[in-house]
């Protein structure tokens, strides 16, 4: 594989035209007229106007950038085991939040607990007990407050909770978050679905030995290869930031902003290739910051299983991918106008 098609993400030999661009594909369908969201689903659909907008502007320098990125990728550091890879990825997101800030907002998991089919007052109490065990502030009012993107001046010391307790807690939070993101039907096979009247102790038993092993290795990689790089960024840090334009794509929140650096972490076992979806994701986040609220100057991807961190100056990245000098304010305005027109 020499390059990745910027339109459908298919891996192809150099010089070979992708079927999605040849006009011969029997499954070809016109671009969808409306944004349905969320952002990740829009990027995953080659017929999306969001995908089309980015593909038309940011693919000229893509092949060379992908080639350089693949050449720099190290060997696999964390192989997969029997733990559910999707839950591992979500738990890793929670783990990072606790490692960079001792009291991250747990709203997604708390709302997810209410969507568990067998949800009960006991389960709700168990989630509150879990929150206390992890050292976060208790919620005492109802209904639950709206989600927050905690902003603090970083870097700061992360949680001091026991490593295994934290891993177990992050696994439980991940399972709860899956109910929020996927809905009760898609998450019906979750271990939570049969838990019923749970206490915090029950939630903490859901992490299997395989899950704990994965999270222990991920923590080692975070502490060795990611946190020292983030520690260089002094200024406003935001966990799970949403953007001015997030509502126009029915939801878009990044992993972390550290003093102008927008970071997305990936936990795929596939060798890092700078796939079009990953690259377009961080670009879309930057463009959705319509009013430059976060003063982004850098975007970064961290491939956790390979301990591979790569960052790009935002404006230079847009120039290179476009093949000409671009204007970030103009691109943001064009993106906003396109999204508004396709609501």
Structural class by SSE content: alpha+beta
Strand fraction: 5-15%
Strand/helix succession: EEHHHHHHHEHHHEEEHEEHH
Shape: globular
Largest sheet: 6 strands, mixed
How are the strands ordered across the major sheet?
3-4-5-6-7-8
Number of helical regions: 13
If you average the pLDDT, what whole number results? 87
How many beta-strand elements? 8
Taking Cα atoms only, what radius of gyration do you get, to the nearest Å?
A: 20 Å
Distance between the termini: 37 Å
As residue ranges, the low-confidence spans are: 22-28, 139-145
What's the gist of this structure?
With 343 residues, the chain is α+β, with helices and mostly antiparallel strands. It has 13 helices and 8 strands. It has 2 domains: 185 residues, no CATH class; 123 residues, no CATH class.
Question: Key features?
Answer:
globular; 13 helices; two-stranded antiparallel sheet; 343 residues; alpha+beta; six-stranded mixed sheet
List the helices and strands and how they pair.
Layout: E1 3-4, E2 11-12, H1 19-22, H2 39-44, H3 49-57, H4 62-72, H5 85-100, H6 107-115, H7 121-133, E3 151-154, H8 163-186, H9 200-203, H10 209-230, E4 235-239, E5 256-258, E6 261-266, H11 276-288, E7 298-303, E8 308-313, H12 314-322, H13 328-341
Parallel strand pairs: 6-7
Antiparallel strand pairs: 1-2, 3-4, 4-5, 5-6, 7-8
